Structures are given as structure tokens and as C-alpha cells.
């Protein structure tokens, strides 16, 4: 208990500023640079392995990468003109191994495939066609082991009787880079557990890079190369800053930035279209063109979010945003819909109701199978942490029902742990919680507040409440301090933070949440619960009382 008190008393909690809730590349982009960094400097280890692979004997390199375009871009720039390169994302048996044709005069001719045609070169393949057609993988595996292609591997090779054109002894030195993500490599392992027996190398390319000055300048140069290659209008530094901020937002990390040529190309082309429609356009694409492109894309994917907002406006979903209430708190969640390309945040109500019991927190969501195992685990952690403070009591007389109100779909995760703890302690102590408070955060058994996912979407769900007119006064958000580095919030949210309408407080321990939630310390709340328990025990010891009187006492 002493350690917990020390966390509460000695750690000063300050409200986050707008600059702490995002990242800004303007200063770096405005700084002149003489750097000649190339794209491959973003991935130095992968570049070195690829260069070595060309010179060494293994015929196969597994390149673990989440994005096909990123992997091929790095390979092409790394090798440049050092080798003949062919890139195939979609292919079949004929494309790789060729076809045997028979003319009307029964003459047999061989049409070579890409592997034989590229003898001595480099063939870059996406793994997907091999997983769809495992037979194709085993043909490729046989080539990688023997370094030659039997005629039977070609289309029609197994159907033709008689003597085939002889090239059984021809050695083919084509090297292959197989691009796959880790899930696809696991699927390959299911198809062929012995695939690792091939003489091969392995290297990874992350979809995210560190936001160092060197990397940002290299990415800036790559984007300028793309603009020139696609014959697009150049961007000014404000537009580049917005682009890089968006790529950082995709990582949900202020120190990382997404490297995805496909996403970058799509955004550049969309911004170009908006720019061309602007009657007052200047010489370069500006931030306003990029922002309009991003807004249009977001609106095109916001139908489900709009229905959620409409339910709040029409009061079909009940939430309380003012005043105080016992055993009720506003939580924050992220809604993920199957087949939907985006996620969005949502405010939901958590309520707790006590009863005669033995200290159990009854998780209604879990009881009716509307919550997963992680959610059940988090509730038990909250129960264990809270009951630890009442080990001096032989018979804890209360239990508590916890409900995610108006939740009709299965949910999982532990991000509501802190909110559940506050709701339960409010219920046990009959202390009301401020309803202009929004809480998210997981807990461990020592009460430490742990990082959660989707922090940007959760906070921006409160911005929507202001836009919908459901909020006017200032609100408070409690979030894990560990998630501060994940904040890359929208400009609308940053404006509300700047105006002190949204006040975000990052906390390390659950004890720090109680003054914000109930204007009391955790020690005071525990004392109130102890007094209530003592009163209930005293009533039982004095004389038997009616069931009705017990119910009245519980509600005091």
C-alpha cells in the first residue's frame, strides 16, 4: 500500500498540450539538406543481405515484408543495374516453367518460362500464387534443389508421349526472391513443413521506419522521385508535412512512419486531382489539397460511424455527459466491423450495481458470452486488485454486477479495466463519478495503468460529440501514460485541446484516477467502503432485520 501511495503523491499529472498530441515535420522539411540519401538507406540490413545474396550460392531469399510495393522498390534501388530483374506478382505454371507445344506435323517445340529465360538473373515473386497452387510450389522447390527444369514441369509436359526435347542437364542459375508476410510463411509451413531444407537466406523489411532526420530526408526524396515518375505537380513543404503526419498516424506512433509506396502513390494522385479542380491553385500542391483528399476518403468510409453518431443524437443510445452518477462511467472503445476498411472510436456507458454477496465482480458480458477471454481476464484482475484491500474482512458482504450498457455485439480486450475499477468502487462506496469524464486503460495486479490500442480513434470519438452538439463544456480524458507516444490526433481534436475543451491526462497508476473521477483519494474511497461494511456487519450482529431493511441499508 505504501508503494501505491507514493505513486499517487509524488507523480505530478499535467494536462497534455496540443503539440504533445501529434507530430510535426514542418521544421525538418523547411531545413535545407544536402543529403543524397537513397531509399535503400531506410533498410540498411536488408540492403546488405540482398547485395550479398546476389554474390553467394543460395538460390532463394525469403523476404518477409508486409507490403509488396515496398519490398520491390527496395530491391530495385538496391541492385539497380547489378542484375537482370523480373518482377512477377501474378503468375502460373506456364509463366514460370513454360509450355510444350505440338504442331499439326507432330513437331514438338518448347516455349521457355521466366525461370529459364532469366538464366543468371533475379526473379522476384510474390508468394500468393504458390499458396493457392501448392503443386506450383513443389515444382519451384524441385528447381531450387536441382538447378534445372525437367520438361515435365512445363505445361503439357506430362501429357506428351515419346521423346521430349533434351535439356535435362542444363544448369539454370536464376536466383529467386520470394516476398511474403509472416502469416503467408506460416501457411507455407503448413503446406510443406520441410520448406526450410532448401538452401536459402532470410531477411525482413518492416512496414515502418524510424522518424530520424536521415530517414525523413530519404523518404522526402523518394516521394519527389515518385512525383516526377508519375508526372504529378510538386508538393510544397506544408503538404509534405501533412502527408508524413498521416503516414505516422497509420503507425499510431510519433516516432515511426509508415513506408508504403501504394498508400503514398494513392494519396499523391488524389491530391493532384483535388489540386486540378481548384480554380485558385498556385504553383504547387498545398496542405489544403491534401487535407481535402484525406477528408473525402474518410467520409467515403464513415457510413457505420454516421449511424453510431445518429443513434446518440436521437438518444437511442443513452449516455450521460453532465453531472454526477454513482456506479456509472463513460468508457472508450474502438469499433471494428468485418469487411470494413476502417475503424472508429465510440463512447459507451459502463454501469455497476451492487448486491449482497462475497466480493465477486460479476461480468455480465462474459456470462452471456458477449465478451472474449481477454475481457474476462481483465475483470478478474480488477476483482483481485480491489479485494486485496479488504483481506482484513472475513466476510465481504457485497458483490457487483458490471454491464456494458446497450452493447449487443461481442467485444474483447482489457482497455475498460480502469473504468470498471472506478465504477465498482463508486458503487461500493456510494460515491458519484463525474460524467464529463472519459476513461480508457488496462490494469495489472499492482494497479499500474497499461497501454491499450486505438487511442487516437477513442479520443476522436469525443471530438465527434462536440461536432454533434452533445458537448459544449470542457471534458476530461484519462489515458495510460504509455500511450502518449501513440498520439497523432486530427487537427479538429488538436484545436479542441488548444481551446481547453478536451483535457487529456496521462496516468501511470489507477490511484491517480480517483481525484479526477470522484474528487477523492483512493484511500478515502476505501475508508468509505470499510465504513459501509462495518455498518452492515453491525446491523447483522445487533438483531435480525428484515429483507427490506437490508435492501435499504445497501442503498445508503
How would you sum up this structure, described in words?
With 556 residues, the chain is an alpha/beta fold. The two termini are 28 Å apart. Helices cover 42% and strands 17% of the residues. Helix 17 packs across helix 21. The chain is built from 22 helices and 20 strands. The chain has 3 domains: 2-18 and 316-541, 2-Layer Sandwich (Ribosomal Protein S5, domain 2), CATH 3.30.230; 44-204, P-loop containing nucleotide triphosphate hydrolases (Rossmann fold); 208-300, Helicase, Ruva Protein, domain 3 (Orthogonal Bundle), CATH 1.10.8.
What keyword list fits this structure?
single chain, 556 residues, alpha/beta, Ribosomal Protein S5, domain 2, Rossmann fold, Helicase, Ruva Protein, domain 3, seven-stranded mixed β-sheet, five-stranded parallel β-sheet, disordered N terminus
